[in-house]
C-alpha cells in the first residue's frame, strides 16, 4: 500500500534523498553536489512509501512574500503513471496553504510541463537550462484551504 507523508525524521529525509539520487543523479545525470543542496536544510520534505520502500519525494521552501517554491519532485521509474506525482503535489500545496502561502513557484523540467499545466500551473519564463536539463519556470496561485477541492482527499 502506498502512503505519502511529511518526512519528519532523519531516516525519512534520508529516504527522500535516496529517491532523489536514483531519479536525478543516476537516471538524469545531475551531479550529486547540485542535487543535494543548501535548500535541503530549510525545506520541508515529503516522502512516499510502498510498504517500507521509498518511491517518491518532494520538497517545498518558503521564499518570501507569501510564496513557496516546490522543488525536487520525483517518482521512481517503475512507479510512474500511478498519480503519485499528482498526490505529492496535493500534499505540497496543502502544506503551503497551511503555512499561509498564497503562491507556489517551481522550475519544471520541460518534459513535465504538461503535468504541471494540468494541475493549474502557468509558464512564467522561456525555456532555460538547469543542471544541463531544459526547464520552464511556472507558478500557481493557491485557493485557501477551506475552498480547496483537493484538501483532505487522497487523489
UniProtKB/TrEMBL annotation:
Record keyword Glycosyltransferase present: no
Keywords recorded for this protein, A-Z: Acyltransferase, Transferase
Residue span(s) of domain N-acetyltransferase: 2-143
Top-level taxon in the UniProt lineage: Bacteria
Keyword Acyltransferase: yes
PROSITE patterns, sorted: GNAT (PS51186)
MF terms (GO), sorted A to Z: acyltransferase activity, transferring groups other than amino-acyl groups
InterPro entries referenced in this protein's UniProt entry, alphabetically: Acyl_CoA_acyltransferase, Bact_Acetyltransf, GNAT_dom
PANTHER family: AMINOALKYLPHOSPHONATE N-ACETYLTRANSFERASE-RELATED-RELATED
Name of the protein: Predicted N-acyltransferase, GNAT family
Origin organism lineage: Bacteria, Bacillati, Bacillota, Bacilli, Bacillales
Amino acid at each position: 500500500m502506498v502512503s505519502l507523508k511529511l518526512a519528519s525524521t532523519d531516516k525519512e529525509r534520508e529516504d527522500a534523498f535516496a529517491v532523489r539520487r536514483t531519479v536525478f543523479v543516476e537516471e538524469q545525470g545531475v551531479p550529486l553536489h547540485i542535487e543535494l543542496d543548501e535548500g535541503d536544510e530549510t525545506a520541508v520534505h515529503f516522502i512516499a512509501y510502498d510498504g517500507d520502500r521509498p518511491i517518491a519525494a518532494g520538497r517545498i521552501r518558503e521564499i518570501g512574500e507569501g510564496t513557496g517554491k516546490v522543488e525536487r519532485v520525483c517518482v521512481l521509474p517503475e512507479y510512474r503513471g500511478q498519480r503519485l506525482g499528482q498526490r505529492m503535489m496535493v500534499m505540497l500545496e496543502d502544506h503551503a496553504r497551511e503555512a499561509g502561502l498564497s503562491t507556489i513557484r517551481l522550475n519544471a523540467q520541460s518534459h513535465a510541463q504538461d503535468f504541471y499545466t494540468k494541475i493549474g500551473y502557468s509558464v512564467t519564463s522561456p525555456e532555460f537550462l538547469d543542471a544541463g536539463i531544459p526547464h520552464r519556470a511556472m507558478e500557481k496561485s493557491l485557493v485557501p484551504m477551506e475552498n480547496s477541492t483537493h484538501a483532505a482527499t487522497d487523489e
